[in-house]
Amino acid sequence: MNLYINHPFHYELENLTRLFYPNEKITVIKNSEVFTEPYIKAFRNEKLYVEVKVGEFLDSTYASVTDDTEDERMLCEMLYKILCELTSVTPPWGMITGVRPVKLYRHLKETTTESEADEYFKNKLFVSDEKLKLTKITEKTEKKIIDLSTEESFSLYISIPFCPSRCHYCSFVQSTIERSKHLVEPYVKLLCDELRRAAQIASDLNLRLETVYMGGGTPTSLSAEQLNKILSVVNECFDMSFCREFTVEAGRPDTITPEKLYSLKENKVERISINPQTLNNNVLEAVGRRHTAEQTIEAYELARRIGFKSINTDLIAGLPTDTVDSFKNTLDKIINLNPECVTVHTLSIKRSADLTQNGTSINRDDAVNTAKMLSYANEKLFENDYIPYYLYRQSRMVGNLENTGWSKKGFESLYNIYVMDETHTILGCGAGAVTKLKRFGTTYLERIFNFKYPYEYIDRFNEQLERKQKIYTFYAKY
To answer: Beta 387-392 vs 425-429: how paired, if at all?
Structure first.
């Protein structure tokens, strides 16, 4: 699809077009006088003008010019209405293409009123009643936790970029344990060094650690001894007296052993994730997960016996070969286990994932079925006393839907809320980690990136420590 423009609003128009044409390349062409079909023209001259030509379909519309902000929104609205008519698709999130709809809603609510925020979501962004309700409940839950953060608050993220294998839907930078075994020990040693350095910086600046989150990858790809080395450094070097939450993604059930869980428990980790994605063995095989549904149940029950009282389980709606009935069966079984948190993701077709490379694309039936899966999840989780506590979206999601974290009251993941809201500073350690420095009370952020790949992280480790000096500079300014 060719998108012709003569203004700086290409980003939103391109993303909006992608909602309706998720499998097509969108080519943005500026200031052209030659138009190749199929095309969209979105011009801003004396008037706003949008025209769409696809096959036999041709439609256009005009509107008055006002200012940059409203002109951008109005061009999107004009295009949105034409594409809804052309494709017979009405996205449940309307024109919203961003990652953080709850954050947008909160901003509108705080700068106007709740009723005006509702009105804007419904009549300016065309968000459905179902998604507006989900947004409003999530925002209220988030707000209570966001208000716990202070100017001195920060969270710690620890990256373990290793997995037993790469799932077909995954696009994260990671290394399989089999291929990268020689990197694991030096990686763990240097990660401990970086954690010690981050702890010293936090101490020098009188920062207050609120949450710790170890993710990946799959942290439990490491041995119990390696996990113990890393977690011991956290407990010994950081001031943990204010820490409200310590989470480790146990992730893949096939990596969970009693020794690893005892190591987590002994190092004051109280919250873990055990992520089946589905309890249908055929679907697990189709997406390259090297474990069974039975292993998920066994790992979950083992964690309970060892004493974990806060467990999250991740599911994915829209996986290849999964059906609405199969998804319902998975969710019902998960609810029967009674975990404290259930995170329901929507499949996102990432360009670098194996699924995409093998020709998987998003079609209308997938979108319809995935929407049914999410509607069922929302209904059943509400019925079983779960509340939505954080929500985010990704590009190229099936059906332009969402990922939602649900929890029992009092078991919300603080870290997930803080990272999604960008509430306070997050110090990132490990390959692929990003340190996000937040100026309290504003939207201002500065980022410090670690090297993505484990071998880069190891080979250029001193450069990363030098980059962390910028944290002092940031806090000296703000």
So the answer is: unpaired
